[in-house]
Amino acid sequence: MARNLKLTLSYDGTDFSGWQVQPDAPTIQGTLSSAIGRLTGEIVLPQGSGRTDAGVHALAQVATFSTASSVPTENFTKALNDILPASIRILDVAEVAADFHARKSARAKTYRYRIYREPICPPFLARYVWHFPYPLDEKAMAEAAQLAVGEHDFTSFAAVDPERGRDNEELSNVRRVLSSSFAREGEELVYSVRGNGFLHHMVRNLVGTFILVGKATLGPSDIARILNARNRSAAGATAPANGLCLMGVEY
Fold first, then answer.
1. 178 and 198 in contact (C-beta within 8 Å)?
2. What residues contact residue 143 under an 8 Å CB cut-off, 6+ apart?
3. What's the total number of domains in the chain?
4. Does residue 229 sit within a domain?
5. 101 assigned to some structural domain
6. What is the pLDDT of residues 156-215, one digit of tens each?
7. What DSSP character marks residue 75?
8. Cβ 77 vs Cβ 93: under 8 Å
9. What is the pLDDT of residue 169?
10. Is the pLDDT assigned to residue 24 strictly greater than 70?
């Protein structure tokens, strides 16, 4: 009898072309699929809670897949970690109800974006932060971040997603942001955002726009205008992928 397994995994996305499987590039989904295949002898394509971009990291991504393998659930964690590269670690494997789906069952996600503010970025941090040592009005950025909270049409902050619409996926660009804030953590300015879902590049486009507020190119009140424009060209440039990390998924 087939089991529906829920994986919680962590990964350094630097050397991967994102989550989504691609024919000629290393991806998290493809690498995970290959490892599961070696372990179970099955051809499976684990479904993630979301498709993180190339270079984006995850502290606790969630994926689900169905298996008829006789491998005990409690053995999957160690067995998969023995096969996977060190940049991907399975943290937990649990059997869940047949109708549980990593993406469709998700209720909220939390992302963090790290901006390193000092003149010299330590090499061992460079993979995980956006090095931005230039002057910024961090108070204005914090004020702007608050204006993203609530239910809005985030078209202005969404990149075109060629994979959009598969599996009867919701096509609306309306999302509910539950919290959006900046905090100083030592040498870093960290943006944290929690919401019921995120569009393609949405968090990185928000950060790129908040940077313009920090540079006084925009004012905090411009966030409302940009949201109302429903036009990608109204917002700022996309922030680099390496500063972004998926912190967790709620069900």
1. no
2. 213, 220
3. 2
4. yes
5. no
6. 999 877 565 555 556 799 999 999 999 999 999 999 999 999 999 999 999 999 999 999
7. G
8. yes
9. 57
10. yes
Identify whether the C-beta of residue 16 lies closer than 8 Å to the C-beta of residue 86: no
Confidence (pTM): 0.94
> What CATH number is given to the structural domain containing 61?
3.30.70.580
Q: What is the mean pLDDT of residues 96-113?
A: 97
Q: How far apart are CA 188 and CA 167, in angstroms?
A: 39
DSSP string, 134-188: S---HHHHHHHHHTT-EEEE-GGG----TTTTGGG-----EEEEEEEEEEEETTE
User: Exactly one of 12, 15, 24, 53 is catalytic; which is it?
Assistant: 53
What residue type is assigned to position 144 of the chain?
A
Task: Please confirm, yes or no, whether 161 is among the known catalytic residues.
Answer: no
Q: What is the dihedral of CA 153, 221, 203, 110, to 10 degrees?
A: -90
Arithmetic mean of pLDDT, 74-84: 97
